[in-house]
Amino acid sequence: MNNYVKIFLYLVYNYFGDNMIDVNDKVVIVTGGTRGIGFEIVRLFSKKNAKVILFGSRKETVDKSIETLRKEGIIVRGYYPNLNDYDEIVKIVKEINDIYGSIDILINNAGISQNKKIEDITSSEFTNIMNINVNAMFNMSKAVIPYMKSQKRGVILNTSSIVSIYGQKSGIGYPTSKFAVNGFTKSLALELAPFNIRVNAVAPGITNTDMVKSLPDNVIDPLIKQIPLGRMANPIDIANAFLFLASDMASYITGVILQVDGALIN
Ligand code: NAD
Description:
Number of domains: 1
Number of helices: 10
Bound molecules: nicotinamide-adenine-dinucleotide
Strand order of the largest sheet: 3-2-1-4-5-6-7
Shape: globular
CATH architecture: 3-Layer(aba) Sandwich
Radius of gyration: 19 Å
Strand content: 5-15%
Distance between the termini: 43 Å
CATH class: Alpha Beta
CATH superfamily: NAD(P)-binding Rossmann-like Domain
Helix content: 40-55%
C-alpha cells in the first residue's frame, strides 16, 4: 500500500470512524470503575475525551485508580459512596451535575459474584449480592433519570453476564441478580424511550479480571476450553461494546442485552 493510500485511509478512519463512535465531552459515571471491566471502561471513555467520574467501594482503591490513570495522562474524578444509600447517591449525582452541567451516560457496572452451593449460601449473602448487583443499579438509575429527562437525552448501560442467559451451576445469587439486570434493562428501556433515554446491557462472557482470577482452576479451565474463540475476553473487549452502545452509532438500539462472549454456550 503506498503512502497516499495510507494517508487517505487514516483520514477516512478519523473522520468517519472515530467521529461516529463519539463520546466527546459526555459526562459519564461508571460504578465499579476501580478495576477490571469498569476500569477499562473508564480508561477507554477518557481516551475518547469523555468526562469520566468513577465510583468505587473504598477511598484507597479510588485514589489508586485515579493515580494510575493520572500517570497515563488521564484525569478523572472519583467517589466511593455506599451504593445502597440512595440519599448519599442523590447528593453526589447533584454535585457531579453542578460541576459538569449534565449527566449524559450512566454505566452500572459494580458487581460481585458467588460460587457456593445453595445449602452453603446464607440469606445475608444472598441479600448482599442482590444489594450490589441489583439494588445499587436501581438507586443509581433513579438518581440520574431526573437529569436525563430534563436534558431530553441520556444513556444507561448495565453490566449483565452470560449467566443471565444460561444460568450457572452454583452460586445461585449471581445468575438470579443478572436475570434481574436484564429485566430491569428491558423494562426501563420501554419506560424511558419516550424521553430519548436509551437503556441497554452488555453481557460479558468469561473475562480476565480479579472476579475470574478468584475462581479455582478446576472451574475456569474447562470453561475456557468451551469458548469457540479459544480465549477469555480481555476487559477492553467488553469496554469496546460499552463504547459502541453509549455512542450515537447505537442511536436506535434500546432494551438490548448484547452478548460479548466469544460465542460461549454454557
Ligand atoms: P472486579 O471484581 O474486577 O471489579 C468489580 C468492581 O465492582 C470493582 O471496581 C469494585 O470496586 C466494584 N464493587 C464491588 N463491590 C462493591 C460495592 N459493595 N460497592 C461498590 N462497588 C463495588 O470484577 P469485573 O469482572 O470487572 O466485574 C465487573 C462487572 O462485570 C460485574 O458486574 C460482573 O458481574 C460483570 N461480569 C464479569 C465477568 C467476568 O468474567 N469477569 C463476566 C460477566 C459479567
